Amino acid sequence: MDKFRIRGGARLEGELPxxxxxxSALPALAACLLTEEKVTLxxxxxxxxxxxxxxxxxxxxxxVEDEAGTVTVQAxxxxxxxxxxxxxxxxxxxxxAMGPLLGRCGRARVSMPGGCxxxxxxxxxxxxxxxxxxxxxxxxxxxxxxxxxxxxRGGEIHFDRITVTGTEDVMMAAxxxxxxxxxxxxxxxxxxxxxxxxxxxxxxxxxxAGTPIVTIQGVDRLFGAEHTIIADRIEAGTxxxxxxxxxxxxxxxxxxxxxxxxxVVKMRLAGAEIAEESATSLRVRCSRRPRAVDIxxxxxxxxxxxxxxxxxxxxxxxxxxxxxxxxxxxxxxMHASELARMGANIRIEGRQAIVAGERHLTGAQVMxxxxxxxxxxxxxxxxxxxxxYIDRVYHMxxxxxxxxxxxxxxxxxxxxxxx
Length: 419
Ligand code: EPU
Hints:
The protein is of the alpha/beta class. The chain has helices at residues 22-31, 48-60, 85-88, 98-105, 124-132, 164-174, 190-201, 233-245, 261-269, 308-315, 334-341, 371-383, 394-399, 403-409; strands at residues 3-7, 13-17, 38-42, 63-67, 70-74, 82-83, 107-111, 136-140, 143-147, 156-158, 180-184, 205-207, 213-217, 225-228, 249-253, 273-278, 281-285, 295-296, 321-325, 345-349, 352-356, 365-367, 387-391, 413-417. The chain has a four-stranded mixed sheet. The chain has a four-stranded mixed sheet with strand order 2-15-17-16. Helix 4 (98-105) packs parallel to helix 6 (164-174) and helix 8 (233-245) runs parallel beside helix 12 (371-383). The longest helix has 13 residues, at 48-60. The site of uridine-diphosphate-2(N-acetylglucosaminyl) butyric acid (EPU) has 24 residues, from helix 1, helix 5, helix 6 and helix 12.
């Protein structure tokens, strides 16, 4: 298993370019199952979760070509309308195949996702929404078996709580259903809007994506299309925090500043200078310890849960005490005990972490528990005194494209130790 050895004390300077969004690329790839024609997707990040989704598409019988981030998928015949256990167990987002397979083939067999490091993460809301569209879903042998022998029909859905991939799954099912579907309490994430943009290019009729009410008029078939994935706002946010924690001066390029509002406001309050240098780049400078500033994670446009761990890493060296509240996932503080190994002072009380800023962190051996927790440890290690070793780098490889290469180009001292 690969490790990172990180030399502490670097100051990041230069440019950090942002890749395409993993969480936009995943539903976009699943959407390719909705047509027998060729779909070309550009700016697909080269990360492990994408490989897994490509494997899933191939398993269904689709042909998939990935040429340095330009992916062409043709699902002209679907032999297996299934997301098997071997694939789902490595990536929960495989449940995104359920909606499109059901819409296209009238059936889908999807392994039930198991537990996860950040929470239980069930997909009950996806399932009950698909039932509202006329699917019959049974749970047997660890699988959801969904059928709609006469095709899906439009329906009215109200999500009891906001779910990102649930909204995406149902949108993909509804585009080929008969009649109108209304999704209420829909997720407003930019990734949902990006999926709607792709589906619209494929011939779908969708209104309201990016608002809490999405309306879809079903069509008979979808067609081939070309689409470029939006910039990864979580990678961009991680870079802003990496620059700030190292008291650096960095231009984060190829990003979409409009998707980073909640983070930028908090970072400015904490003392970082952040300026839009162009429509696609943000300059971040920070020459001092941050002030302690509280955050609470929320659905978009609130503060992203996927940036909570990295923000907490910054607050561990702040002046004062900050409260970090996690409202989306029930168990997303695994990084706190690892940060404590580096000298951070964090107390967890239910959904709240109370972070008392320290002047210094010290290098230590730590272990990543999930993708974003691992990124937080990288950030902390960059300011710690001495060397740190971060175990289980495979978590990082699931969702960050060439992370150590990009950070090293801006002055970080990260070495991948292959064991
Ligand atoms: N939930 C249910 N039932 C469901 C679906 C969700 O109870 O059927 C709960 C979840 O357990 C959670 C909350 O609702 O407590 C929100 O979960 P959501 O469904 O929105 O999460 P997701 O769609 O599974 C996506 C991202 C996550 C990101 C969350 C929240 C993708 C592929 N994944 O997950 O990204 O944290 O939205 O913004 O888009 C990551 O990239 O590191 C990552 C975990």
